[in-house]
Amino acid sequence: MLFDRVYRLLVGQGNQGVEINDLRINFEIYKTAKKNPNRNRVQIYNLQKSTRQMLEKPDTKCVLYAGYAQQDGPVQIFSGGVVVAWSRYDLPDIITELELTDGGAEIRDTTISVGYNKGVKSSQILKDVSQQMGMPLNIPSDLVDRIWNNGFSFFGPARTLLDKITKAGNHEWSIQNENLQVIETGMVTTRQGVVISADSGMIGSPERERKAYEGNTKRKKTNDPLKEFDGWRVKVLLMPQLNPGDRVQMDTRDVQGVFRCDWINHKGDSFDGDWQTELKVVDPAKKLNPTGSKGGAAPRGQSTKTSTVDSGRVPIPS
Fold first, then answer.
1. Number of C-beta neighbours around residue 34 at 10 A
2. pLDDT confidence of residue 283
3. How far apart are CA 70 and CA 4, in angstroms?
4. For FRET with 47, which of 37, 97, 295, 310 sits at 20 to 30 Å CA-CA?
5. For residues 276 and 267, is the Cβ–Cβ distance under 8 A?
6. For the chain, counts of helices (H) and of strands (E)
7. Which pLDDT does position 318 carry in this prediction?
8. Which residues does the chain have with pLDDT short of 50?
9. In the Cβ-directed half-sphere of 230, how many Cα atoms lie within 13 Å?
């Protein structure tokens, strides 16, 4: 699998940027289903000086695709903004490091002003919020709506409005690959799930994950040791299509069933070392419909063919 690895890294501003797919990179893309923006990093080796200078400018965007040539090719693994970029010398290399955030600027900068008549539904408000934030809305078609019988009005940060609307409907929101994702609290998305087994690239065996208690000053006591456990941690060969909230079917010697992806950590180095995904899966809050339901669109740019061009000016997905 080492020589089967492929990636595409698009960086730039506005609708134009530079594609990188032949230099050494390494990345760590950590995602959760929480509302705080996902923060990640990418290192690039031996960029041209002009490209290094471009990356240091404000409002630079980064889109990373990674995968295996003999499977689906490079699949979108991250899309977001560059928080800070800097370069250092590690002779004979020059290493440029990018600190990235998914939706951080949109959450920070978007102020919402809305007013609705009686009977407005949560889904309509969420659609309007996503439009003002400049993000597609990924929402299941069967999501239970909260109806505001007396109308609804709001002025303030988009984050505050999202908290208010989702709390009222027992929903949760997060930003994944610059998509606003809203699902029922503790449930799964309607994207196609993945199967994890020895045949699908599992590394080692699943490990039981213990609950983390807030504060950590004193652990809560329980007479039932099973209540100390909270899901499973598992490693697999890189699964770039997987995101928090997605459906995961575990089919291993010790673990069988359908779970929810709670958090995920994609790691890779295009020249050496690991090229894998580590994730935590938890039991959903209720039994899942095995066939799923028709829901919102999958994250944009989820897959792409490998470019035959090593570098050059390319459009940045908007």
1. 14
2. 82
3. 7
4. 37
5. yes
6. 4, 21
7. 46
8. 1, 214, 216-217, 223-226, 286-318
9. 7
Q: Tell me, what amino acid is at 258?
A: V
The answer to whether 299 and 240 have CB atoms below 8 angstroms apart is: no
Assigned token pair, 122: 């949560």
Identify the pLDDT of residue 25: 96
CATH 2.40.30: which residues of the chain?
194-282
Give CATH 2.40.10 domain extents, the chain. 2-103+302-315
CATH 2.40.10 fits 2-103+302-315, yes or no: yes
d(CA 72, CA 150) in angstroms, rounded, equals 49
β-strand partners of 66: 7, 75
Q: What is the C-alpha end-to-end distance of the chain, expressed in Å? A: 32
Mean pLDDT of the chain: 83
CATH node for 194-282: 2.40.30
The predicted pLDDT at position 316 comes to 45
Q: Exposure pattern of 276-287 as b/e (b: 16+ CB <10 Å)?
A: bbbbbbbebeee
The CATH number of the structural domain formed by 106-184 is 3.55.50.30
- pLDDT tens-digit profile of 239-291? 999 999 999 999 988 888 899 999 999 999 999 888 999 999 998 654 444 44
Q: Which string of b and e fits 158-192 if b means at least 16 CB within 10 Å?
A: bbebbeebbeebebbbbbbbbbbbbbbebbbbbbe
Return the HEC string of 58-88.
CCCEEEEEEEECCCCEEEEEEEEEEEEEEEE
Preceding peptide of 92 cis, ω within 30°: yes
**Helix-helix angle 158-168:122-133, to 10 degrees:** 160
pLDDT of residue 233: 94
pLDDT value at residue 212: 58
**Residues forming CATH 3.55.50.30 domain(s) in the chain:** 106-184
Determine the Cα–Cα distance for residues 25 and 311; give it in Å rounded to an integer.
14
